[in-house]
Structures are given as C-alpha cells and as structure tokens.
Amino acid sequence: MTVYENIYSLFAGRFPSDQRAPFIETSAGGHYSYADLERESARYARFLTGLGLQPGDRVAVQIEKSPAAVFLYLGCLRAGLIYLPLNPAYRAAEIEYYLDDAAPGAVVCRPSDLSGMRELAGPRGLKHVYTLDADGQGTLTGESRSLGDEFDTRRVSPDATAVLLYTSGTTGRPKGAMLTHGNLAANALALHQAWGWRPDDVLLHALPLFHIHGLFVACHCVLLNGTKMILLPKFDVPAIMRLLPKATVFMGVPTFYTRLLADPAFGRDVCGHMRLFVSGSAPLLPQTFDEFQQRTGHTILERYGMTETGMNTSNPLDGPRRPGTVGKPLPGVSVRIVNDKDRPLQIGAVGQLQVKGDGVFKGYWRMPQKTAEDFTSDGYFRTGDLARLDGDGYVSIVGRAKDLIITGGLNVYPKEIEACIEKLDGVVESAVIGAPHSDFGEAVVAVVVRAPGREDVTEAGLLTALKRLIAGYKVPKRVFFVPELPRNTMGKVQKNLLRERYATLSE
After folding, report:
1. For 123-179, how does the pLDDT look when each residue is reduced to its tens digit (9 = 90+)?
2. Closest CA to 212 of 160, 165, 277, 169
3. How far apart are CA 333 and CA 143, in angstroms?
4. pLDDT tens sequence across 454-502
5. Are strands 427-437 and 441-450 parallel, antiparallel or unpaired?
6. In whole angstroms, how far apart are CA 114 and each of 110, 139, 336, 472, 477?
7. Domains of the chain
C-alpha cells in the first residue's frame, strides 16, 4: 500500500496559500474560509483529546448536516480518533446497537436528542455526551469555544482506522467497516485525478454527510482541490435550480436526477455553467440517462463503489459514458469477474464481482471471521454483486447476490425489517423485497402472513408501528397480506416470485 500520513495532512497540503479563500458557502448565505476550517477543526481536536480520548477511540456522531459537522469530522481525523457517523433518522433501538458494538468514548447528538442519548449512554458508562445543532451551536461548541485554535495534526500509520461505517448483511446484523487513512487518501486521489478537478471548480453538495458518497466522495475531492462547495442541508429542487448556475460539479443519487427532470423548468439554461454531473449509490436507469442528456446537453457520469471499498469504477471523464454500465476500474483498482470457486470468467460472462486496491477497507470491526470470509486468498474483496465485464473494460452490475434494497440511494437490508415486523402482535412471518419505483429507484415492500383470525392487523397499523422502531427510509411503502409465503423444496422463501408479483404495485 502506498504510504500516506494522516489524511488531513494530505488535504492541508492542497489548501490555498491564502486561507481566506472560501471553503463552504451555505444556501442561507453563510460563508466559511479555509482559515475557518483550520481553526474550527483544531478547536474540536483539542477539546476531544482534552477529554482523554486517545488515538483509535471512537466518536459517534448523530447530527444534522452543517459546516460544523464537516469541521467536527476533520477534527476527529486530526486527533487520530475514529469517526462514526450515524444517520439522523436512526431510532433508539438502532443507536443502542451501535453504542454497544463500537463502544465510543464520546457521542455528539442533536440538542433535541440529548435526553434520550443520555439514557442510552448511562448504562454503558459513556460519560461524554455533547450536542451540536445545524447552526453550529450546542454544548460541544460552547465548551470548546475557549480553547486555542491551533492543533498539531497527529501523525498516524496509513493502516490506522479513520472512520467506522456500519453496513448490514443478509443476517441483519450491522457490521462496522474499518476504513483507514490510507484507504481514504488513495480513493480521494484516484477520484480527483479521474474526474479532472480544476482550480475553478465549485461543488454543489446536496448529499447527506453520514455515508461514503457525501462525506468522502464529495467532500474529499473539494478538500484535495482546495476550492469551494455550496453546502445544502438536504436535496431540494428549487434550491438546486437556483444554485446550479453558481456551481460546476454536482453529485447525486438517481432519485435526485429523476426529481430534477420532473420539473419542466429544468434544462440547458440552468445547467449552462456546469462541467460534471456524477451519479452513484444506486443504479441509474438508462431512460433517466437518456432524458437527462436530451434535456441538458450533459451526459451523467455513473460510477460504482461500496462502503467497504470506496469507489471502484467510473465512466470516463473523456470518452464514452455508457448507460447501464459503471465504467472502468479507477487508477489503482483491480476488478475481476469470477465463478463460485474464485476462478476468472471469460469476457461478457456474468459472475461475482471482486475488487482489490489501496481503497479497500482493512476489515470488519471485531469480526475477524467475517473479514476472512469476504477476502480471497490473493487479497480480493468479495463484493456480493453480480456483474459482467465487456471487451472494452466497462463493468455492468447486473444484480446483487445479497438481498440488498437501495431506495433513494440508501441501503435497506430485508432481514432487519423482517425481524421488526415479526415482533409485532398478530404477525406470523414476513418477507421484505425491493420493487421498482420511479422516484426512489426501489421501494421497500413487505409481504406479511397474519396469525389466524387477526384481520385487525392492517397495513396502516403495521406502518405506524414500524415508524416508531426504524428510520423512515426503511419503513415499507406498501404492505401486502398473503395466506403463506412461496417456498422452494428446501423451505427457502422464493423472493424472486414475490418480486414478480408485486413489481408494479409499490407506488
């Protein structure tokens, strides 16, 4: 692996010489310079280390998207702490698992969540619970304000874990992917090169900050470029339309593009200043690709990555961007399509996609056996995706070996939802599937078997109960009731039949 220092040092080496240069502009008119970035991240690093946190300790963060959230992330990197971002939509039962598994030394949450977070933290001996709101105010800011604004960024090994990102599997138990400073640096450098970042580029940032797309792919490219991003609190079509003329680069999930195309005013005039549109986190439908090209004159660049690996492939900046493909391997990444025995298949054959490179994570947190299972003897990571490779080197993802649902760019794991449904009174069993959806790409659909005589168990009742247990994006769009689930001769539920049956009923 190529050796990098703390990834923050890599970024800092690319910052503009005049640090009064803009780093973040907000949709509300806020402005933050690179000097603000240095100062605020140093203050957070000083505060956290002053609590006695040591390199390798975890800091769990469940807050809204804001400039302060970016500065806190960078402060954790500078201090050598492991940053653990959590979706603000997670409920108490979900947070409880992450606190138990990651055992963080500190938690930062929204002020409105403080009471509930303390209730979870107390029994676990977690003493350091602080708040930070979308305006950058809270106990974290208040208690760190008096500290100095200088901090010597800690030198770390390239193999030191920088971020812990949780991703579930078919068992439903979330796994913490350990991404190192070296992993993040390698991937950021590859993307910066592949997408041809320019000195005048401005990123319009509408993605969340709790997963790899918004936190790494977007922010890291800007930091390496030493330029500005316009930070939106969330995706909002009117705001995007207003701000696109001030930007040159936009990154989104397919849902963003379908919603933009649904606005009749969206077209060439709005996109005239743009250089690059990137799509990822879920498959982009060819019809969306074609309509966007016709309406705007821009060709969306689709890429492919995973929580565990960062970005693996990308359609070219210069060269044909082929709809239905995710492009070619990025610099420093090797991919192969293999059979069940890890033997490479011929060009054009569908098989299991495996990847290898400096961006691939070092393993799952406290799960050495699972880590060993997911890596081949020669160091390739088993993605769980089914793909084909054409004669020109373009990769097409054709399916998922795992029962993953991607809705609006967010991952939903059926086993987790099924476990929640089957705890509810009057439910015998359930099967959760993904069904095509024009806006979200896929919609979560639940097929449920009720207990005999329990017609009082209704779709509305189940959805209401689930909304109290799990994040909103995980809650099914529809619930259908059946006398029994279809099974094969081995007793396994035939979800393929359910997908066919409910393919057009999710909206």
Report:
1. 999 999 999 999 999 999 999 999 999 999 999 999 999 999 998 654 457 899 999
2. 165
3. 43
4. 999 999 999 999 999 999 999 999 999 999 999 875 567 888 899 889 9
5. antiparallel
6. 7, 10, 47, 20, 30
7. 7-279 (3.40.50.12780), 305-400 (2.30.38.10), 405-501 (3.30.300.30)
